[in-house]
Design brief:
Blueprint lengths: L1 H7 L4 H24 L4 H15 L3 H12 L8 H7 L1 H11 L1 H4 L3 E7 L6 E6 L1 H26 L6 H23 L11 H15 L1
Antiparallel strand pairs: 1-2
Helix pairs in contact: 2-3, 2-4, 2-10, 4-8, 6-8, 8-9, 9-10
Length: 207
Amino acid sequence: LFLVVAYTIHKRDADRLWIAAQVMVIFWCVGFALQISGADPKTAAFWYIFANDFVGFKVPVVWLLWALTVAGKRSSLTRLRVILLFVLPVLTDIMNLTNSRHGFMYRQMWLDTSGRNPVLQFLCGPWYWVVTAYCGLLLIIVIAVQVKAALNRQLLYRKQGLTIVAATAAILIFIGLCLVTEGALFQYYDLTPVAIGIATIFTSLVF
């Protein structure tokens, strides 16, 4: 992964952002695998928070930066605006590090061992919904940016842009289903990193 990141230094901005997003999704998926294989609550909770919160909640930001770059909006991405986009995800990191004091991120976490396989369960705090809504909003903006760029022929490959729109919309729908069913649809496993991983692989093949 270090070599992949080093390689991005010699690529264009859009390529660097795209590869960065893919590397983050890889970390997210690996963390998910380690989480579901955890045999005790502390291990499962650690890998869930590391993968989903410290990495996963930043993926929509990088995805948006990439979408704006390929749509020709690179000049609008000032350093201040980029920093502001990362404010909520970074605050989420702080919330996680201090969660034991306030429970704003997670009120409770436990390992449900009543089924065939142990499943990490948790009660969400108010900040969890804030950052989740923020990520959903970023994905909606990605869709709007790509649709507008495709219709205005600002993209070099119009069909690929619409493919990104379809993949992002599919991810939003998937996350919505997970939230509405509270994970019951997938036996209480959070398969968001798997869905996003499939979407990034698909879009990479298209491009």
